[in-house]
Task: structure prediction
Amino acid sequence: MDKLVIVALDFADDFECINFLNQFPKNQSLFLKIGLEMFCQYGYPFVKRLRERGYNIFLDLKLHDIPNTVKRTCQMIAKWDVQLLTIHASGGAEMIAAAKEGLSGSNTKLLAVTQLTSLGQVELSNELQVSLPSQDYVTRLAKLAFNNGADGVISSALEVPMIKEATSEEFLCVTPGIRPKSAQVGDQKRVATPSQARKLGSDAIVVGRPITQAKDEYNAYVNIEKEWSK
Ligand SMILES: O=c1ccn([C@@H]2O[C@H](COP(=O)(O)O)[C@@H](O)[C@H]2O)c(=O)[nH]1
Result:
């Protein structure tokens, strides 16, 4: 996978989203993340529309259900020609393997969310009553994903070196929770700047609000891309 900036298309509606995309030069190759906000409103026709415009698509549905349901859902998504799809690693070994089986015959890579980047150590210990230190919990889920056929994980950039060591250099680490120095952190807890993510070995960064809520969105993308690829 090329080192990529993936833009999270978290917009109120498709009008805002298309206006955003129209700021980019026509030949600009973009990797776009469609999450629950847009998918729940517009579903597969929206995914198809963006694929037809030539964009690469990360479908961030974070599937988490019994293995049979996840497998059958993945069989459907396998026909959509998207590049990346997410499930939750905490769905367990059988669910992860079922998702991979559902995607077989497609080129869609399967990524498993470890610990959401909006959860820090306090939330993990106090709210979820997980007794492991966050980094060990993330690594454990990453190993579970690796051993059951996922192509990579979603984690914070801070955990990438540990994940790669516990799995393989080729196991993809796609990292949201990216905040350039001047950006507001908001609801994210485990954050890194684009250049930190690069140094820590992320394969791709996912960036939403620091781009989509910037005054000059295109310029924000260009600056993040520059910092990331330095
Ligand atoms: O652990 C996770 C998994 C997914 N995300 C998604 O990434 C973007 C981040 O958006 P920002 O505005 O840059 O915070 C968003 O779509 C999340 O759903 C994540 O942040 N953390």
